[in-house]
Design goal:
By secondary structure, this protein is mostly beta strands. 0% of the residues lie in helices and 51% in strands. The strands form two sheets. Strands 2, 4, 5, 6, 9, 10 and 11 form a seven-stranded mixed sheet that branches. It has a four-stranded antiparallel sheet with strand order 1-3-8-7, with no helix packed on it.
Length: 114
């Protein structure tokens, strides 16, 4: 069974950092592209970043460039989203998704507030 489980969310002050994790099971993350997506309260889903499975290429939404970094630990079959210089507008539920497998995790909530 394909499964994605996010963790690492929480409350952080503006300017702070968080590292989100996405633990995968039932498939090899090194063979599949993985997206990070977020959904802020009252808004639709917003793509954040992507890491390719084959060539490790990474892509970021404009708002994430220079602040967020997506990475992968193949040995742990886990993806990460390092988020720095967080802003209140980054408040959202963050999800990891494997589009080819039509699978998405349950999300982890990030709140950026003083």
């Amino acid at each position: 069974e394909v499964q994605l489980v996010e963790s690492g969310g929480g409350l952080v002050q503006p300017g702070g950092s968080l590292r989100l994790s996405c633990a995968a099971s039932g498939f090899d993350v090194s063979h599949h592209p993985i997206n990070w997506i977020r959904q802020a309260p009252g808004k639709g889903p917003e793509w954040v970043a992507r890491i390719n499975g084959v060539d490790d290429a990474t892509y970021y939404a404009d708002f994430a460039k220079g602040r967020f970094t997506v990475s992968r630990d193949n040995a742990k079959n886990t993806l990460y989203l390092q988020m720095n210089s967080l802003k209140p507008e980054d408040t959202a539920v963050y999800y990891c998704a494997a589009p080819v497998l039509n699978s998405r995790g349950q999300g982890t909530a990030v709140t950026v507030s003083s």
